Amino acid sequence: MYSNDVVQSNRTKVFFYMIIMTAIIVGLGYFISDMLGYGLMGVWIALIISGILNFVSYFFSDTLVIKSSGAVPIQEEDMPEYYAMVREMCSRNDIKMPRLYLINTSALNAFATGRNQDRAIVAVTRGLLERLSLNEVSGVVGHELSHIANGDMFLMSVVSILVGFIGIFANIYSRSSLLSGFRRRDDSGISAIVGIVFALAAPLIATLIKFAISRSREYMADAKGAKFCAHPEYLASALSKIKNDSSILPVANEATAHLYISNPFKSGLFANLMSTHPNIDDRIKKLENMNI
Q1: Of 122, 195, 205, 240, whose CB neighbour count within 10 A is largest?
Q2: Cut 0.85: pTM above it
Q3: 76 is catalytic
Q4: Which residues is 72 bridged to in the sheet?
Q5: In which element (H, E) is residue 225 found?
């Protein structure tokens, strides 16, 4: 029911983005070391840290994402109808049953994570289960199952962790430059200026990477998710309610925002200018025009 080519392409992109993120971190490490007068020591330290970071993001990104979201496992005896619906949809579409988690908030949202189908997790908010009909929930779950089937959740989870650490490194450089007063031991400070520009640009580059990998995948997941639940109108109706929901998702952050089915930030500069999600109205129109 899903393309192995898409899954393989996403896994290739994981390594590609790891290389890009490593280059950014090593660059920041160089400028931090240069600013503090430690020569190339910072480069070697950054390489070591990048290796550890890549290892952690590859093998434990799903665990870190779940912990950051505050999600907890859902027991089947507590929500048998929800479990039965997910199990039936997985069986019908030849997808392994994911582990189901709950985020205890009234906001309407959901995400999928996991390194592969064997480790896949679908997390939904309490508000989603309480305020949407079971049909609408099936549309949302179908969307998340599509991410699992395509291997999107692994790519996006790894990028979440790497983007977060790039922000930390950029902040360290900014603090180092302030502490040093932009003074250099052996030149006029040109390297410091270049470093500041690089430190400011690095988080933006990381965000643009997130932006690039997320939007097209949301459209694809909407289309395939609608087929998974066999009713595009279920997901369209769910997205309409999600759009009109004003509840804030307090556990979301800029590193994990692109994982959710809808932008968890309801207002502010990040929500309006740098959203990783396509316009919900456009998504609804595409679903309404689908023929299954």
Answers
A1: 122
A2: no
A3: no
A4: 102
A5: helix 190-229
